[in-house]
Prior knowledge:
The complex is a heterodimer of chains A (119) and B (113).
Chain A: E1 3-5, E2 10-14, E3 19-21, E4 24-26, E5 33-39, E6 46-52, E7 60-61, E8 64-69, E9 74-79, E10 88-95, E11 107-109, E12 113-118
Parallel strand pairs in A: 2-12
Antiparallel strand pairs in A: 1-4, 3-9, 5-6, 5-10, 7-8, 8-9, 10-11, 10-12
Chain B: E1 4-6, E2 10-13, E3 19-25, E4 31-38, E5 42-51, E6 54-57, E7 64-70, E8 73-78, E9 87-94, E10 103-104, E11 108-112
Parallel strand pairs in B: 2-11
Antiparallel strand pairs in B: 1-3, 3-8, 4-5, 4-9, 5-6, 7-8, 9-10, 9-11
Amino acid sequence: AQKITQTQPGMFVQEKEAVTLDCTYDTSDPSYGLFWYKQPSSGEMIFLIYQGSYDQQNATEGRYSLNFQKARKSANLVISASQLGDSAMYFCAMRGSNAGGTSYGKLTFGQGTILTVHP
Amino acid sequence: DVKVTQSSRYLVKRTGEKVFLECVQDMDHENMFWYRQDPGLGLRLIYFSYDVKMKEKGDIPEGYSVSREKKERFSLILESASTNQTSMYLCATLSGTTYNEQFFGPGTRLTVL
């Protein structure tokens, strides 16, 4: 079974500062993918970044980067230069191995972290 | 861009009613998913489908069923709605070739009175 844990129910950051949102995972799959999604108050889920378990380098997408530490089973999201529009709920998620075609891309989500950016 | 639409943004039903939540996608994706989102619990998978007329239970299927008669449409059915099914319901779709980004619909906030 897969498990994702986000231990920070809420985080606060000052505008223009960097913030790290924590995510740890547990899986027995040899191959897996890790995702971060943003959910603003409007409710839509916005894909931010993806890291494959065999990727050698940490994923980056603009101001988002994923600090992937495989041995520690952590996949923290780092947002640089926070903006007021970054205030939202953030979810970490994992997709198990698709070898054998049994997972069909199912995602397991963490509990979420509410980020508030102060001006 | 993939577009995933859900039939209602807000829905209010009474206990015991049969409820249909519809999801339609326009990108010919094989895989479709239904999640429910509750505070402190994140998103939990109810059912998913990897092909027309094919379905599999997710982590919390009790009290729900699904229907996928056409590739683009995946329906979630609450046979007899109960108050503990008050929640946000999110539909998602995924390419069967890349298995990467899931694309989500806008969600349906269901209240069962």
